[in-house]
Amino acid sequence: MLKELDALPSNETGFLGHTGLSMGVIVQYWRSFDHLEAYARSREHAHFPAWSAFNNRMKNSRDDVGIWHETYQVKAGQYEAVYSGMPPFGLGKASELVPATGRRSEARMRLKG
User: Fold this and answer.
1) How far apart are CA 1 and CA 94, in angstroms?
2) Residues whose CB is less than 8 angstroms from the CB of residue 87 and which lie 6 or more positions away in sequence, other chains included
């Protein structure tokens, strides 16, 4: 699924990027919930057929297999990721980086846009 998303234009899918964390956790960034839902339910893309097949295989194993899924909606301009002495990670890989200087030197001012 991630290979497919990386290969498709983001203006088509709304997929902005992903970051792998420990224990197989992957954080994905999407332009909107509508984009995420459209991709997840699309029968023409990799997710829906794989999800259906997984559910069919695991329908009798719910006590053995757990799923963790969270979705957060963030208002435009009301988030930040701060980097110092490291390459972009997480949101910084999925969005434009802006130096935290001048009126952006304080978190409150950065979050005002």
Assistant:
1) 17
2) none
Q: What is the pLDDT along the chain (113 residues), one digit of tens a residue?
A: 999 999 999 899 999 999 888 777 888 999 999 999 999 999 999 999 999 999 898 888 877 877 778 888 888 878 788 888 888 887 888 778 888 888 888 888 887 76
- Quick one: 24 exposed, middle or buried, by C-beta within 10 A (0-12, 13-18, 19+)? exposed
